[in-house]
Amino acid sequence: MPPHGSKNPSLAPRVVAALGLLFVFLIGVRGLGSGFQLLGGDLVQGLFAATENPFIGLVVGLLATTIVQSSSVTTSIIVGLVAAPENPLPLANAIPMVMGANIGTTVTATMVSLAHLSRQREFERAFPVAVCHDVFNYIAVLVLLPLEMTTGYLQRSAIWCAGFLSGFGGLEYESPLKSALNLGFAPVAAAGDMFSAQGGQAVFLIVVSAAFIFSALFLLVKVLRAAVHSRVEGAIGRVLGSGGAISILVGIVVTVMFQSSSITTSLLVPLGGAGLLTLEQALPVTIGANIGTTVTALLAALAVSGPNATAGLEIALVHMLFNLSGLILIYPVKAIRRVPLSAARGLTRVAIRSRRLTVVWIALLFYGLPVLCIAISRAVQ
Question: For the whole model, what pTM was predicted?
Answer without folding.
Answer: 0.74
